[in-house]
Design brief:
The structure is a single chain. The chain is mainly alpha-helical and about 475 residues long. The chain has one domain: Amino acid/polyamine transporter I. Helices cover about 65% and strands about 5% of the residues. It contains 15 helices and four strands. Strands 1-2 form a two-stranded antiparallel sheet. β3 and β4 form a beta hairpin. The protein is globular, with a radius of gyration of 23 Å. The protein starts with a helix and ends in a 12-residue tail after the last helix. This is Amino acid transporter, transmembrane domain-containing protein. Keywords: Amino-acid transport, Cell membrane, Membrane, Symport, Transmembrane, Transmembrane helix, Transport. Belongs to the amino acid/polyamine transporter 2 family. Amino acid/auxin permease (AAAP) (TC 2.A.18.2) subfamily. Pfam families: Aa_trans.
Length: about 475
């Protein structure tokens, strides 16, 4: 038990413990790997997933539907939800190598790839995963600043009238968001942010419901369903623009469903029995069904309300007129949600860097020493100097990049395109094939490869459309400029 206590203490300090503890018997305080007892449930896992999935990407779904039309739009939304759920179940089965009850745990997405596919693919996966996670935190910083600017402009219009330009810069709001994230980033790991995910999940439902309600009200005010079967018409845009924007819509939808990069890390918080795999699959089903219903409603009612002119951000499409206070509430909910979502996507990066540095410099006091700070009525907070410095630097870096490139729709389209195929489809499919020893050229193997190939084509098209959008934005963009429209 002394060994178990030592390993558990190390883990609580935020560092991974090397070695195989699968032979350790579970006890009242420790799991079978010598780590502190996991306490996550179906509902905490669902909250983490919903926090990761229902991001501000939901607000771009009306725009995405407008590019694709009444037939292709809802169809693509449904297909992405199905692929996300199916591949997430494949990935969840790779949490343990071998037996789903007693097999060796894979604590991160990268460890699962390394256990099942080997070193080379493990390195490629790591690069793509952490690039995508970092890009997502940048995108969330941009999105939070947009909502803060929307609240400021709404207040300005209400006081000075709608003829006033009410220009506003997003830079100070990004700095404010970054300052909050620096504080929250000192929470050591996923186990410490369940409360934050719960709050963020409630906020995501709040602004999604408001956006949906405003879309329904706008639709009722119009008295008719706008839009067409084929989407935005040539004339509103050129034929070339329609193609690129349709591809970009794929990326926006892919981003709206992306959470596979943190699935294994979320699964590692779940207690057993039942098996982590079973709980995670159920949590995935609940979360994907919930988010798909919201996505369908927001995308379709937004398109029905605005037609070809559906905005990139559903909430800003209602202008800054009454009920401006309701739009302000929705934007405030977005900000609170993104505060939590940032942490869900940043924690795997933090854990990886801290694990690697502790393995390379195990004797360094700067990296390993914990300072206990007493908190009245609560357990002491363990402050680690390396964690504080490194995480602060990371948040500052993402904030600066967000200031330099605030193109939310195009950025998330690129991130969705780059991350969707390899992280959501390719690696889960390949790991599942390897772990279950599915024979090459068998019917199941062929079907899985067809799924992977089709998603690769979609990702390439989405990346091309989003890159074209960024190039167009860069032609007219000036850093740190005051913005007079959102």
């Amino acid at each position: 038990m002394k060994i178990d206590e030592k390993n558990a203490a190390n883990y609580q300090q935020g560092f991974e413990v090397s070695g195989d503890f699968s032979s350790h018997a579970p006890s009242k305080f420790f799991d079978d790997d010598g780590r502190p007892k996991r306490t996550g449930t179906l509902w905490t896992a669902s909250a983490h997933i919903i926090t990761a999935v229902i991001g501000s990407g939901v607000l771009a779904l009306a725009w995405a539907t407008a590019q694709l039309g009444w037939i292709a739009g809802p169809t693509v939304l449904f297909l992405f939800s199905f692929v996300t759920y199916y591949c997430s179940c494949l990935l969840a089965s790779c949490y343990r190598t071998g037996d789903p009850v007693t097999g060796k745990r894979n604590y991160t997405y990268m460890e699962a790839v390394k256990s099942n596919l080997g070193g080379f693919k493990f390195k490629i996966c790591g690069f793509i995963q952490y690039f995508n996670l970092t890009g997502t935190t940048i995108g969330y910083t941009i999105a939070a600043s947009i909502s803060m600017m929307a609240i400021k402009r709404a207040s300005c219009f209400h006081e000075k009238g709608h003829d006033h330009p009410c220009g506003v810069s997003g830079t100070p709001y990004m700095v404010l968001f970054g300052a909050v994230e620096i504080l929250l980033s000192q929470l050591p790991n996923f186990h410490e942010i369940s409360w934050l995910s719960m709050v963020a999940a409630v906020m995501s439902f709040t602004y999604s419901a408001i956006g949906l309600g405003l879309g329904i009200a706008k639709f009722a005010q119009n008295g008719k369903i706008k839009g067409s079967l084929s989407g935005i018409s040539v004339g509103e845009v050129t034929q070339t623009q329609k193609v690129w924007r349709s591809f970009q819509a794929f990326g926006a939808i892919a981003f709206a469903y992306s959470y596979s990069t943190v699935l294994i890390e979320i699964q590692d918080t779940i207690k057993a029995p039942p098996t982590e795999q079973k709980t995670m699959k159920t949590a995935t089903l609940i979360s994907v069904i919930t988010t798909t219903i919201f996505y369908m409603l927001c995308g379709c009612f937004g398109y029905a309300a605005f037609g070809d002119h559906a905005p990139g951000n559903l909430l800003t499409g209602f202008g800054f007129y009454d009920p401006y206070w309701l739009v302000d509430i929705a934007n405030a909910a977005i900000i609170i949600h993104l505060v939590g979502a940032y942490q869900v996507f940043a924690q795997p990066i933090f854990g990886f860097v801290e694990k690697t540095t502790s393995e390379y410099f195990p004797e360094s006091k700067f990296i390993t020493k914990e300072i206990c700070i007493p908190i009245p009525g609560y357990k002491p907070f363990k402050l680690n100097l390396f964690r504080m410095v490194w995480r602060t630097m990371f948040v500052c870096m993402t904030t600066i990049i967000a200031m330099l490139m605030p193109f939310f729709e195009d950025v998330v389209g690129i991130l969705g395109a780059i991350g969707f195929w390899p992280l959501t489809v390719y690696f889960p499919v390949e790991m599942y094939i390897a772990q279950n020893k599915i024979p090459k050229w068998s019917s199941k193997w062929i079907n899985l490869q067809i799924l992977s190939g089709a998603c690769l084509v979609i990702s390439i098209c989405a990346a091309a459309g989003s890159i074209a959008g960024v190039i167009k934005d860069l032609q007219v963009y000036k850093p740190f400029k005051t913005i007079e429209h959102l």
